[in-house]
Amino acid sequence: MSEVVPVAGRDTAICEATLALLAEVGYDRMSMDAVAARAHASKATIYRRWPGKRELVLEAVRRRHEPPATLPDTGSLRGDLASSLSGMAAPTSCDEADLMAGVLRAMRRAPELGKCMRDQVMDRKRAVFRTIVARAVARGELPAGASADLAHEVAGALWVQRVLVVGGDVDDAFIDHVVDDVLIPLLCHPLSSPQPHLPSSPAPDAVPQETQ
Question: Which domains does the chain have, with CATH numbers?
Answer without folding.
Answer: 8-65 (1.10.10.60), 69-190 (1.10.357.10)
